[in-house]
């Protein structure tokens, strides 16, 4: 038997066929390269952004600590532990600071039955820094955000909840009312949604705390919606007389109603003579 030999030209052609790459091999290699490059860049960008965010957060806390030491430590203590002139702020959360400072109640102008609302003493950035510092001391209610503040809840449900939980102090129309020992429930007209929500979760002054177990975030949204509704819609009964209820209305009737009757009686008597 004779062995069939392959000439050099045929061998070269066969070698070229065996070593030929698939037409999509280059595309696959490029895709894999882009995938690894993109993944590495995304990981690097995320790490960098996270580091910058952490640095910014820490810088905000540090700024808040300096502001606290200069403006608040006299009453609340250098470590916010409280003193005879002010309560501890450990655990009150950012929401409490944002409410008290954001409405001008703090820093306290003078000692009295309760802190009064006045022009705000700090910028929004400074208020945020103070809130971040106090929040860093211990967990507490955070500053609310998102749809709970949009005023798009159920006004009817909010009205019912307000009458049950809030009207005994703030009046059914949110006009405010007197309490004992010189204290009072303030009017809720023109109060921002975020401050209404913060008041509910922190319980400032004489107000009780309504946590999420008492009133859910969705129901808090409904209450805010109701308050915005009565703020945007005038009294359907005509003159509201301060929306203070039967006291103001009764006084009006006694003064003007009885006055009109007396005047009419005098006029009739004078005409008969």
From TrEMBL:
It is a multi-pass membrane protein. Pfam families: Cytochrom_C (PF00034), Cytochrome_CBB3 (PF13442). It is an enzyme of class 7 (translocase). Heme c 2 binds at residues 166, 169-170. Binds 2 heme c groups covalently per subunit. Signal peptide: none annotated. GO terms for cellular component: plasma membrane. InterPro entries: bc1_cytC-su (IPR009152), Cyt_c-like_dom (IPR009056), Cyt_c-like_dom_sf (IPR036909), Cytochrome_c_Oxidase_Subunit (IPR050597). It catalyses: a quinol + 2 Fe(III)-[cytochrome c](out) = a quinone + 2 Fe(II)-[cytochrome c](out) + 2 H(+)(out). Residues 11-20 have a biased composition (Basic residues). It is found in: Cell membrane. PROSITE patterns: CYTC (PS51007). Residues 1-20 are annotated as: Disordered. GO terms for molecular function: heme binding; iron ion binding; quinol-cytochrome-c reductase activity. Keywords: Cell membrane, Electron transport, Heme, Iron, Membrane, Metal-binding, Repeat, Respiratory chain, Translocase, Transmembrane, Transmembrane helix, Transport. The cytochrome bc1 complex is composed of a cytochrome b (QcrB), the Rieske iron-sulfur protein (QcrA) and a diheme cytochrome c (QcrC) subunit. PANTHER family: CBB3-TYPE CYTOCHROME C OXIDASE SUBUNIT FIXP (PTHR33751), CYTOCHROME BC1 COMPLEX CYTOCHROME C SUBUNIT (PTHR33751:SF13). This is Cytochrome bc1 complex cytochrome c subunit. It comes from Cryobacterium frigoriphilum.
């Amino acid at each position: 038997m004779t062995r069939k030999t392959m000439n050099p030209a045929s061998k070269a052609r066969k070698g070229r066929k065996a070593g030929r790459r698939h037409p999509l091999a280059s595309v696959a290699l490029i895709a894999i390269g882009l995938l690894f490059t993109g993944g590495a860049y995304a990981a690097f960008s995320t790490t960098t952004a996270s580091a910058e965010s952490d640095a910014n957060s820490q810088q905000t806390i540090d700024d808040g600590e300096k502001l606290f030491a200069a403006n608040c430590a006299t009453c609340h203590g250098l470590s916010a532990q409280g003193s005879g002139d002010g309560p501890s702020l450990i655990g009150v959360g950012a929401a409490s600071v944002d409410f008290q400072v954001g409405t001008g109640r703090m820093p306290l102008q003078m000692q009295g039955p309760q802190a009064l609302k006045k022009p705000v003493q700090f910028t929004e950035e400074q208020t945020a820094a103070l809130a971040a510092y106090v929040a860093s001391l211990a967990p507490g209610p955070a500053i609310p955000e998102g749809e709970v503040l949009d005023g798009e809840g159920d006004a009817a449900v909010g009205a019912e909840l307000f009458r049950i939980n809030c009207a005994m102090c703030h009046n059914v129309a949110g006009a405010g009312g007197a309490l004992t020992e010189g204290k009072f429930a303030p009017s809720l007209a023109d109060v921002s949604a975020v401050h209404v929500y913060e008041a509910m979760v922190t319980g400032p002054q004489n107000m009780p705390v309504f946590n999420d177990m008492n009133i859910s975030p969705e129901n808090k949204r409904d209450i805010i919606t109701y308050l915005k509704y009565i703020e945007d819609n005038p009294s359907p009964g005509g003159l509201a007389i301060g929306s203070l209820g039967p006291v103001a209305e009764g006084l009006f009737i006694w003064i003007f109603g009885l006055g009109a009757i007396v005047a009419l009686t005098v006029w009739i008597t004078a005409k008969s003579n």
